[in-house]
Amino acid sequence: MSILNGIRVLDCSIAMAGPFAAQRLGDMGADVIKVEPTSGEWQRHASAGGATGNKINVSFLSLNRNKRSLAVDLKAPEGKAILIELVRNADIFLQNYRPGVAERLGVDYATLSAINPRLIYVSMSGYGEDGPYRMYPGQDLLLQGMSGAMLSAGSADAPPSPAGQYLVDAVTAYSAFEGALAALFHRERTGEGQLVQVNMLDAITTIQMQELSVFTVGNKPQARSAEAHAHSYIRAPYGVFQTSDGYITLAMAKLATLGAVLKDEFLAGLDEERDGWTLRDAIFATVKAKLVGATSAEWLERFRAVDIWSGPVYGYADLVEDPQIKHNQTFVEYDHPTEGHVKTPGFPIRFSRTPSAITRGAPLVGEHSRELLAEAGFDAETIEQLIESGVVRQHA
Predict the structure, then answer these.
(1) How many other CB atoms are found less than 10 A from the CB of residue 322?
(2) Which residue in 34, 90, 97, 38 sits closest to 63, CA to CA?
(3) Counting Cβ atoms within 10 Å, is residue 71 exposed (0-12), middle (13-18) or buried (19+)?
(4) Which UniProt keywords apply (predicted)?
(5) Is the dihedral of CA 206, 212, 214, 218 positive or negative?
(6) Is 148 helix (H, G, I), strand (E, B) or coil?
(7) What's this model's pTM, rounded to 2 decimal places?
(8) Helix (H) or strand (E) run with residue 331 in it
């Protein structure tokens, strides 16, 4: 039995952040019902990387395992009535509608909590439920640019560089996941449900706790160096360096030790806590010139022998074959009825007594509509009428 066994989640979210948060709950055993339009959730039709799949594209597949699909038209009175019935016995309701949409649909917190006072209602937005930016599009890259983080790395004359992940979506998903779990714990103590609000702007801002505190409390300006330093608030050497056959990372080495390995008197005579800041560009340039003289493997062997923090720069092909990744069983593999054999990232949290598991792959549109309506108490005749009218879609 998994740790959230018996918890029912209504996932009315789209795109990445909301579905990812709901998937984490499903991985831990919650019964996650994906409530989506009869045409299917938006992510089903927007394939990242052009990976369309057979019947389910890889974007949707990756964010919606361990869920059942109920395809229903919430704009129809009969469709809204179905959702209300599900709310009566739900534990968590998760949505990332634009501000105002939940109220127009009649599925806002005030309405649903009156029906089920124990309900934990997780509302996710781009910039907040109100305020001057409330209607702006909450898209990952836009929030990355707004976060300030793009100007913490790289060289001063280089353009701002975005992260290589959908970073804001992921951080927001984990914030919502954390909020839902905390609210569940509160409910176990008190019996009370509550509203949990998460927005992307606050999520990406608050994760920069250390950097922004250095700026606001320490009064240190966010100034990029002439060289491509990896973070404006870390002393040199700190960044990605080219070798004779690739790239490695190097972080905060003791300069005397580094100078000895590189056979460089300039580095060997420096004090890292003083010169690591004031001579950051000169240190970076010196190290950069030295490291092109040997292979990545050679440098990593030399550096690790004297405890200089260093590591490889991987592509995905390298990552999936890494010995530690394999040892950790970071990726999980399973068979999907339409997409075949699937290998995908697994579970970042491990429980000794209540392990996460994949009990079902991402569902087809409305794959579970009939069984979910039956569980909610609708009789067989009503269910067939709803399907025939188009209010509900049941996948063939």
Answers:
(1) 13
(2) 34
(3) buried
(4) Transferase
(5) negative
(6) coil
(7) 0.91
(8) strand 331-336
